Amino acid sequence: MSDSEEHHFESKADSGASKTYPQQAGTIRKSGHIVIKGRPCKVVEVSTSKTGKHGHAKCHFVAIDIFNGKKLEDIVPSSHNCDIPHVDRQDYQLIDITDDGFVSLLTENGGTKDDLKLPTDDALLTQIKDGFDAGKDLILSVMSAMGEEQICAVKEIGGGK
């Protein structure tokens, strides 16, 4: 290899932190999180079968995708590791709603976050728009996992005018 050759390595990780961590399937419980088919999910049901002829007890997971609400299922030997997503929930104050469906949010350090779209959930969308139009101070909860973010809840602060 000559000195004139340069190697560039592209890093796919944002801060060196992994989007998931391993956990043994037999230790995952209801209302925990799991990655099924590459999607972050909340576990709604876990059932474990007895050890079979070939020695592994199996865990059957039924989970709901935390972003799109789809139901997913997986069966994993209880001694194997599953990927668990790092799920974070952050609260921001709503500043503005743009015409193209994006929201402007106030961060804790006084900056703004302008890269989130309004939620697709009709009840939540109506609650946010009605509250904003009425001039109420709204706090939006944003859930993030595996590089995705979505508004998942709204609450009113103070007594709106």
UniProtKB/TrEMBL annotation:
This is Eukaryotic translation initiation factor 5A. One of its GO terms (molecular function) is translation elongation factor activity. Translation factor that promotes translation elongation and termination, particularly upon ribosome stalling at specific amino acid sequence contexts. Binds between the exit (E) and peptidyl (P) site of the ribosome and promotes rescue of stalled ribosome: specifically required for efficient translation of polyproline-containing peptides as well as other motifs that stall the ribosome. Acts as ribosome quality control (RQC) cofactor by joining the RQC complex to facilitate peptidyl transfer during CAT tailing step. It comes from the Eukaryota. Keywords: Hypusine, Initiation factor, Protein biosynthesis. It comes from Brachypodium distachyon (Purple false brome). eIF-5A seems to be the only eukaryotic protein to have a hypusine residue which is a post-translational modification of a lysine by the addition of a butylamino group. Residues 86-155 form the Translation initiation factor 5A C-terminal domain. InterPro entries: IF5A-like (IPR001884), IF5A-like_N (IPR048670), IF5A_C (IPR020189), NA-bd_OB-fold (IPR012340), Rib_uL2_dom2 (IPR014722), Trans_elong_IF5A_hypusine_site (IPR019769), Translation_prot_SH3-like_sf (IPR008991). Belongs to the eIF-5A family.
